[in-house]
């Protein structure tokens, strides 16, 4: 900001006030913005440094599982499971921070001149770094990729790398900026400047390199611990200070940020003022244990059902070891950073559940979401998924309780799916085998077949289907209310746009999915309401959401409101204005808590809710 003349600054402020209409209403002047800029620039004594333990990320093929966690800034552990002999876990240091939000980003440092990195390590269940098959991959901003044998830098489980002396040896290969693979005849130096990323690989002990297929093997758990990380000349910048807590709470989804270190993510969101409550949706595709048939081969490497259905979730091991390590670290760090309530959110949605568990249409098609690949929905009439979800919930609660947090369980949106986009009939999904069998056993006749959600229907049939969801909710409730836990809290998340919207939802589906017997004060400690479709569409139905909870018998102190979400960044400016307005209405009405969905969008869209002036500052400094 220094050196900008008053005239230019006035122009910048005007431009940004136009861009951020929700902020411009406060008529922030440039003198006030200068003051806010100085406040924004305040930093703590804690530094971001190259190779800091909590700032590494992981990447892996979908068949494997992996998580990176830390106890301190000078260590990290990668925990996971190999399920094919071709699995590869990439442990990355990125020169440009993957968290782009300026207030919580370490920014960029691509020049590694005079940098020395050293650490100790230990490994189990995976190939040791000393194996000649393992290379360090260095990518440059010029488009080059260099492969350096890792064992060159290791002595007695100690790694030492001087970036001023990077080289590849005679016979080694690299990829030049034009994509050509080059084999060098003599030792060739590698510049420490313009480094984009550095990757260490973690692979099975029986690893077979194959870029065209994955061969399934017996599941093998592994750990790789890097400790005593020491970096010479590694300074990047100082961290920003923690902002004072505000009234907004946060939601996160494990599927969205499983590759980030939970120690870091928790600290960064605390800097943005998020405290006290957090809702973690454990997801639909990464938390569970799974396996395939050893020797079976996956040849379709596109991310679709041909690939994902080669494996199925385990009904006896409920969480994979990567998620266990991640949730343990996450809950521990939340407790240490002023978040005292972690909601474990589970849903009826899963990517790799057994086929017999899945809801179906009358003509036998699976209920499918709009995600790619589509996730499936459990049948509430099948005993196996009910037992499974109870065990999953209990396993998650055990982890957070062990870290000093209270047991809080949320039933995510529970419903009979209907193929809303499958026009014109938009068929309901009431016809999995378990549902048909249960209905026949209880009624002595087959359940009627409805090929369209707009068809005439039997109210007693729909009430019976509705009650199956109510019974499912009661089963989940029994987990957190068991004698195992003290003061367990049970919640449900209700999404009215897909249930009560008379302009969108046919009467059959409104009646089958409005769970009044489950969404009641004698069944729930707290009801949570979410209506982001209505919010971003600026729908006239939106105002209905604020009264629904009270109509169901809840007082405001037993109601939570969820704002969001912005799926595509190009919609961010318009949608965040509507979302913040909706959340502020809930706060002013007296809802007990109000959440933003979700942290991934907060980070992506540079949001500093509760500190609107700082968003203008970011616009001036970084846009």
Descriptive overview:
- The chain has 623 residues and is an alpha/beta fold.
- The protein has a domain at 47-238.
- It is built from 16 helices and 30 strands.
- The strands form seven sheets. An eight-stranded parallel β-barrel has the order 18-19-23-26-27-28-29-30, surrounded by five helices.
- Helix 11 links the parallel strand 27 and strand 28 (526-530).
- The longest helix is centred in the C-terminal third of the chain and has 22 residues, at 459-480.
- The two termini are 13 Å apart.
Strands, total number: 30
How many helical stretches? 16
DSSP helix fraction? 25-40%
- Biggest sheet, open or closed, and with what strands and sense? 8 strands, parallel, barrel
In spatial order, strands of the major sheet run: 18-19-23-26-27-28-29-30
Secondary-structure class: alpha/beta
Principal-axis shape: globular
Nearest-integer average pLDDT: 94
Low-confidence stretches: 1-9
Strand content bin: 15-25%
Report the radius of gyration as a whole number of Å. 26 Å
Question: Topology of this structure?
Answer:
Layout lengths: L5 H14 L1 H4 L5 H11 L2 E7 L7 E4 L4 E5 L6 E9 L4 E6 L21 E9 L10 E6 L4 E5 L4 E2 L2 E5 L4 E2 L4 E3 L5 E3 L4 E2 L5 E8 L11 E19 L2 E6 L7 E6 H4 L4 H10 L4 E6 L8 E2 L5 E2 L6 H4 L3 E2 L7 H16 L2 E8 L2 E2 L25 E2 L5 H20 L5 E4 L21 H11 L15 H22 L8 E6 L12 H7 L12 E5 L1 H5 L8 H7 L7 E5 L8 H18 L3 E4 L2 H6 L7 H11 L1
Parallel strand pairs: 18-19, 18-30, 19-23, 23-26, 26-27, 27-28, 28-29, 29-30
Antiparallel strand pairs: 1-17, 2-5, 3-4, 4-16, 5-15, 6-10, 6-16, 7-8, 7-15, 8-12, 9-10, 11-14, 12-13, 16-21, 20-22, 24-25
Helix pairs in contact: 3-16, 5-7, 8-10, 10-11
């Amino acid at each position: 900001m220094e050196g900008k003349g008053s005239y230019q600054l006035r122009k910048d402020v005007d431009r940004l006030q136009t861009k951020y209409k929700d902020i411009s209403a406060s008529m922030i002047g440039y003198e006030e913005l200068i003051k806010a800029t100085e406040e924004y620039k305040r930093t703590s004594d804690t530094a971001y440094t190259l190779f800091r333990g909590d700032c590494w990320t992981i990447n892996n093929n979908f068949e494997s599982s992996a998580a990176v966690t830390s106890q301190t800034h000078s260590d990290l552990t990668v925990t996971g499971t190999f399920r094919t002999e071709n699995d590869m876990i990439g442990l990355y240091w990125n020169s440009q921070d993957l968290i782009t939000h300026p207030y919580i980003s370490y920014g960029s440092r691509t020049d590694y001149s005079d940098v020395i990195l050293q650490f100790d390590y230990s490994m189990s269940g995976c190939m040791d770094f000393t194996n000649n098959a393992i290379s360090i991959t260095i990518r440059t901003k010029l488009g080059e990729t260099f492969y350096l044998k890792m064992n060159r830098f290791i002595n007695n489980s100690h790694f030492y790398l001087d970036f001023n002396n990077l080289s590849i040896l005679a016979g080694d290969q690299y990829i030049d900026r034009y994509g050509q693979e080059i084999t060098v005849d003599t030792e060739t130096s590698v510049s420490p400047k313009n480094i984009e990323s550095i990757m260490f690989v973690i692979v099975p002990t029986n690893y077979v390199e194959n870029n065209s297929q994955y061969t399934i093997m017996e599941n093998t758990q592994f750990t790789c611990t890097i400790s005593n990380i020491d970096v010479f000349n590694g300074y990047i910048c100082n961290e920003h200070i923690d902002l004072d807590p505000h009234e907004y709470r946060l939601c996160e989804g494990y599927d969205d940020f499983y590759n980030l270190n939970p120690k870091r993510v928790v600290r960064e969101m605390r800097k943005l003022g998020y405290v006290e409550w957090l809702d973690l949706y454990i997801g639909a595709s990464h938390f569970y244990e799974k396996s395939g048939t050893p020797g079976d081969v996956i040849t379709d490497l596109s991310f679709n059902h041909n690939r994902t259905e080669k494996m199925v979730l385990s009904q006896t091991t409920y969480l994979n070891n990567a998620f266990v390590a991640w949730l343990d670290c996450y809950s521990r760090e939340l407790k240490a950073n002023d978040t005292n309530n972690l909601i474990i959110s589970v849903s009826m949605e899963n990517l790799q559940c057994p086929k017999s568990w899945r809801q179906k249409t009358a003509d036998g098609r699976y209920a499918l979401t709009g995600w790619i690949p589509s996730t499936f929905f459990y049948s509430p009439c099948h005993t196996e998924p009910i037992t499974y979800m109870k065990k999953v919930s209990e396993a998650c609660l055990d982890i957070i309780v062990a870290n000093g947090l209270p047991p809080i369980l949320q039933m995510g949106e529970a419903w009979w799916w209907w193929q809303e986009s499958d026009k014109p009939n938009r068929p309901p999904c009431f016809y999995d085998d378990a549902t048909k069998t249960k209905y026949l056993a209880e009624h002595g006749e087959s359940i009627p077949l409805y090929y369209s959600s707009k068809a005439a229907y039997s109210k007693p049939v729909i009430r019976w289907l509705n009650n199956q969801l109510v019974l499912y909710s009661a089963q989940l409730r029994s987990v957190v209310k068991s004698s195992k836990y003290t003061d367990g809290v049970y919640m449900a998340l209700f999404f009215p746009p897909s249930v009560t919207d008379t302009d969108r939802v046919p009467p059959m589906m409104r009646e089958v999915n409005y769970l009044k017997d489950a969404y009641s004060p004698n069944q729930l400690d707290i009801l949570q309401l979410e209506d982001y479709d209505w919010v971003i569409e600026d729908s006239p139905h939106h105002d209905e959401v604020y009264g629904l909870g009270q109509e169901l018998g809840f007082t405001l102190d037993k109601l939570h409101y969820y704002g969001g979400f912005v799926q595509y960044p190009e919609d961010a400016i318009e949608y965040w204005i509507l979302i913040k307005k909706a959340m502020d209405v809930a706060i002013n009405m007296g809802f007990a808590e109000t959440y933003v969905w979700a942290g991934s969008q907060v980070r992506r869209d540079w949001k500093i809710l509760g500190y609107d002036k700082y968003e203008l500052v970011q616009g001036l400094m970084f846009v």
